[in-house]
Amino acid sequence: xxxxxxxxxxxxxxxxxxxxxxxxxxxxxxxxxxxxxxxxxxxxxxxxxxxxxxxxxxxxxxxxxxxxxxxxxxxxxxxxxxxxxxxxxxxxxxxxxxxxxxxxxxxxxxxxxxxxxxxxxxxxxxxxxxxxxxxxxxxxxxxxxxxxxxxxxxxxxxxxxxxxxxxxxxxxxxxxxxxxxxxxxxxxxxxxxxxxxxxxxxxxxxxxxxxxxxxxxxxxxxxxxxxxxxxxxxxxxxxxxxxxxxxxxxxxxxxxxxxxxxxxxxxxxxxxxxxxxxxxxxxxxxxxxxxxxxxxxxxxxxxxxxxxxxxxxxxxx
Length: 317
Fold this sequence. Notes:
Elements: E1 27-29, E2 36-43, H1 58-65, E3 84-89, H2 97-113, E4 117-124, H3 129-137, E5 144-149, H4 168-174, E6 183-188, H5 195-203, E7 207-210, H6 211-216, H7 219-233, E8 236-242, H8 264-275, E9 280-286, H9 297-316
Parallel strand pairs: 1-3, 2-3, 2-4, 4-9, 5-6, 5-8, 6-7, 8-9
């Protein structure tokens, strides 16, 4: 006998439909000189979270969730075939919170400076990674606008706890990276923020839409208006998607779950629409703890957010 029958290498003995390609199959590691429409990077950091969080495991969980989706959008007829460059994850020190945020800034700066991708997706991590990512994404002569999907303002003061996952947008405003008027917050929820931070948002011109606003007006109408206004003021737009903007029924794997949030269809539609704007060039997805998730539900929504971003860019272009 010359070989073993019916045996494949470990991990490869799985069903494969010859006509079906999964999104995960499009991921390729970055090599100098290659370019693509989309590049992703992982920011596996959660030590700065003010609540218990295993969000450092989320980049791997979201990548795994891509195996649940095919490359074909039946609604639009778009079939993705081009490679997605995966830059891997930024290496984190297990004990150095502030140092890790600097490492994220430096690592993402290097990634963005390759200009290997036309559009960027950063997989967090807790929301503190947005400060490092947006700061790295911005340039001295390029103004940045941010659309933040979130239940929380994330405008906490730094004095009480340092640079936590509750402080990224205050830090961006105070270090001059982002003007308050160029920050649009969508999905802010009742009884999740202090009055002082609502006052801070008003004082700095932050545009805030609560969940009650989304009851009165559709998310698509709000985004159409704010994208037009932002697009007239800034050079590039960055989307920051905190998954706890979703109702706890749709995102059980978020550390800060709560009722009264957005449903997944609204979030997916919002990201899809926003991505079609020519100035939207990057997005992060944050605040998933796979260790408390149920059947990877929250990571699957996050992976779909990523796909709707890609689909929106494809249709917008």
